[in-house]
Amino acid sequence: MTIEVRVPTLGESVTEATVATWFKKPGDAVAVDEMLCELETDKVTVEVPAPAAGVMGEIVAAEGETVGVDALLATITAGEGAAPAPATAPAPAAAPAPAAGGGSVDVMVPTLGESVTEATVSTWFKQVGDAVVQDEMLCELETDKVSVEVPAPAAGVLAEIVAPEGATVGASAKLAVISSSGAGAALSAAPAAAAAPAAATAGKDVANAPSAEKAMAEAGLSADQVTGTGRDGRIMKEDVARAAAAPAPAPAPAPAPRAPVAAGDAAREERVKMTRLRQTIAKRLKDSQNTAAMLTTYNEVDMTEVMALRNEYKELFQKKHGVKLGFMSFFTKACCHALKEVPEVNAEIDGTDIVYKSFVHMGVAAGTPTGLVVPVIRDADSMSFAAIEKAIAEKGKRARDGKLSMAEMQGGTFTISNGGVYGSLMSSPILNPPQSGILGMHKIQDRPMAINGQVVIRPMMYLALSYDHRIVDGKGAVTFLVRVKEALEDPRRLLMDL
């Protein structure tokens, strides 16, 4: 029997994708749910699993081709020469459990994203001997950018953990082995496994991180004893560690002389290994300082006109477009306008060449519970205010939820960082290599200003442009910042392209 492999649903408003990579070729044996290919859209990277076990037949859409939703990608001849995994793959929920003595299924590292070759095993949610249900989370991996949860490919019993916590694994490494001989027990445990998260999040609108649930169980803490710092109060693993360390150190079993101050300080210290994301942030920031001839120029902008325009149209804007009108769309538009006049700020160095970009892929720095990430709004220079606000809101939420793909954080040509949301009055942002410019926004603060010979109170914001002096001269940097200031102080200039 021939089974068709088709393009899955790509997401709201996404109608086409590009075939990026085929992991199988005609004649290869494939297991059910094994990844066959990877599709790229302008928003996300989508993996296409095998709908059945068998032999790879014809590849209809080759790498590089653009395909629509539900388009035919390939065919599979079911049953013939099937890969070993299907023999132990879980049957549908209504089917009887596999007989004892069945085979085993390898748990492999999933696709980590473009250019990511390794990850660190941060947390195992199951132990050897535990029953597992298909698609139940087994462990969590950390890469340079995101955390990746690894689901069980089949029901059974966790027979072996090949990569323990803290181990660094490659992109195609084996993590564990599931024995399908215990699939019956795992299936019977499914209702309990499904009920556990509900109990853990009772009274909350959001689920806690799986690694946090495990840490709370090990520490003997309940959710109401831990203050969550994640999105919407979600409890993270670090929150559990802080809660567990909160009580004062237990007294020594027997009286002892007063310890030196240094020893006492050591007892109150906590040593925590940096996450891969934090290590990458540290390395990239230091590399940026060591490589670029970084300089920062400052200016200030009167936000009166932007605030008035926003207050006048914000309700109508939200009613029509379904998204709030914020300040970021004004700043994005102003920067795109200024980059046209000063293209070197939108360029990068490649060896002894300067590469000028005729487009703007705007990076928007976003703080998350695990560190700073910079999702990229592609072709921001051709987008409307509403499209920019929607893109920023959507990518910001995905960033806080840890669901950004690697592709969504690559390819930026210029970056905006808004430290003002945290109360920063002035700072010098660090370049995001290989970009040559980054704009720092800051807190809006009422200050007395001299306007037409009169002292008036105006809502003012300091702006900072850090730039690579190797390709951006002081004149260009100052001109860029002045153009941003002019566009924000008279937003009509953006409409008139002045």
TrEMBL record:
Catalysed reaction equations from the record: N(6)-[(R)-dihydrolipoyl]-L-lysyl-[protein] + succinyl-CoA = N(6)-[(R)-S(8)-succinyldihydrolipoyl]-L-lysyl-[protein] + CoA
Gene Ontology cellular-component annotations: cytosol; oxoglutarate dehydrogenase complex
Renumbered to this chain, the Pro residues biased-composition regions fall at 248-258
List the lineage, top down. Bacteria, Pseudomonadati, Pseudomonadota, Alphaproteobacteria, Rhodobacterales
Q: Which species is this record about? A: Ruegeria denitrificans
Record note on quaternary structure:
Forms a 24-polypeptide structural core with octahedral symmetry. Part of the 2-oxoglutarate dehydrogenase (OGDH) complex composed of E1 (2-oxoglutarate dehydrogenase), E2 (dihydrolipoamide succinyltransferase) and E3 (dihydrolipoamide dehydrogenase); the complex contains multiple copies of the three enzymatic components (E1, E2 and E3).
CDD domains the record matches: lipoyl_domain (cd06849)
Protein name, please?
Answer: Dihydrolipoyllysine-residue succinyltransferase component of 2-oxoglutarate dehydrogenase complex
The gene it comes from is sucB
- What Pfam families does the entry give? 2-oxoacid_dh, Biotin_lipoyl, E3_binding
Q: Which InterPro entries match?
A: 2-oxoacid_dehydrogenase (IPR050537), 2-oxoacid_DH_actylTfrase (IPR001078), Biotin_lipoyl (IPR000089), CAT-like_dom_sf (IPR023213), E3-bd_dom_sf (IPR036625), PSBD (IPR004167), Single_hybrid_motif (IPR011053), SucB (IPR006255)
Residue ranges of the Lipoyl-binding domain? Answer: 2-77, 104-179
What EC number(s) does its UniProt record assign?
2.3.1.61
Q: Which UniProt keywords apply?
A: Acyltransferase, Lipoyl, Transferase, Tricarboxylic acid cycle
Residues annotated as region Disordered? 243-268
